[in-house]
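Sanity check

After download, print the first record. It should look like this:
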Amino acid sequence: MATSVTNSYARAFADAVFNQHADPGKSLQEAQSFAELVASSHDLREVWEAPSILAERKRAVLDAIVKREGISPMVRNFMAVLIDHRRVNFLGPIVKQFEQEINRRLGFTEAEITSAGELGQADRSTLEARVEKLTGKKVRARYLCDQSLLGGAVIRVGSTIYDGSVSGQLERIKQAISS
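Expected C-alpha cells:
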C-alpha cells in the first residue's frame, strides 16, 4: 500500500508541476525542505496527523510556514492535499519518488559515486561523463566517501554497480587465483 500511495502522489505532483509549467528544480527543492522540516518536528507531524484538529487549523499552520519560508503556491497546495488526506506520514518517501519522477521526465539518471577520498571537480566531471556515456542519460551524481575502498570508485546507477575500486580489484584477483 505504501508504495502505491507514494507513487500515486509523486506522479500527481509531477503532473501538476509540468502541467502548470512550474520550475521542477525549485519545486523539488521546496518539497525537500518541507519534508526535512516535517521530519524534524514531532509536534508539527502530530498536529497535521491528528483527526481531532480541524482542517482549517491545520491549513492555517501550513500557511504560516509557507509565508515564513517563502514556499510557492504549487508546493503549498501539494502539502495541503497531503494534510487533508492524512498522508503527511508518507511525505519523505513521496518527495523521494517525486525526485525520481522529475529526473525520469527530464532525462536524468541518478548515480551514487563512492570513492576512497574527496574527489576534485575534474575527477567528478570525468566520472559523470563516463556514466553519461554508459547510460545514455544526463547524470545527477551524489558523492560519498568510503576509505575501505583504498582507491578508485564504485558507481551505482539504479541496481547496476560498476566497481572500479582497488579493494574490488583485489577481491577479483583473489577469486581468480583461488579458482
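If your output differs, re-run the checksum step. Summary of this record's structure: The chain has two domains: 2-104, 108-178.
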